[in-house]
Amino acid sequence: MHAPLALSYKQSMAETTFFPRRLIRAGAMISGVLLALAVHMLGARYGLDLGGLWRSDTHNFMPAGAAVAWWLIATVGFSGGYFTATLMDSAVSGQIPQGMRQFLIAIGVLVLAGAAQAASAPSAIPTISGVLAGLAALCLGAVMAFCGAHFALRKS
């Protein structure tokens, strides 16, 4: 009797690796929060600041810049969490080429570097208002990034 021939490593099927969804969700949330904070810092540099909500010197109900900043931060947090979770889930299953992964990483690094450059400039926002705006942006970005990651992983 002949012994069965062993297949070489190139002919055998690739094993599917298990990657916990909690790690994908956590990574997507971190990415969404960082993108939301980057947009908050860049927006504050161009006059879209959340600190307008806590100013008492304005007679308007809510300054338009603060409303645009809220919607922009929420949108970027949600879409950042959603797209990052989708991309991470696809990358784990091997559906994204290596070149595309490197391109997306480079884009993320450039956005965060731009936010760091904007954050290093002196702020025109008063300190307490700036701290409250930063905490509000952090919380809003975290909630929206979680929602985006949850919906992305729920559909797959």
- What is the total tally of β strands? 0
Structural class assignment: mainly alpha
Helix content: 55-70%
Largest sheet, described in full?
A: none
Instruction: Tell me the distance between the termini.
Output: 47 Å
Q: Give the C-alpha Rg.
A: 21 Å
Order of helix and strand elements from N to C terminus: HHHH
Low-confidence stretches: 9-13
| Beta-strand share of residues | under 5%
Overall morphology: elongated
In DSSP terms, counting alpha (H) and pi (I) runs of 4 or more, how many helices?
A: 4
* Average residue pLDDT: 76
Sequence-ordered SSE layout with sheet pairings:
Blueprint: H1 21-45, H2 64-92, H3 98-119, H4 127-155
Explain how this protein is built.
The protein has 156 residues and is mainly α. It has four helices and no strands. The N and C termini lie far apart (47 Å).
Keywords for this structure?
156 residues, mainly alpha
Short description:
With 156 residues, this protein is mainly α. Helices cover 67% and strands 0% of the residues.
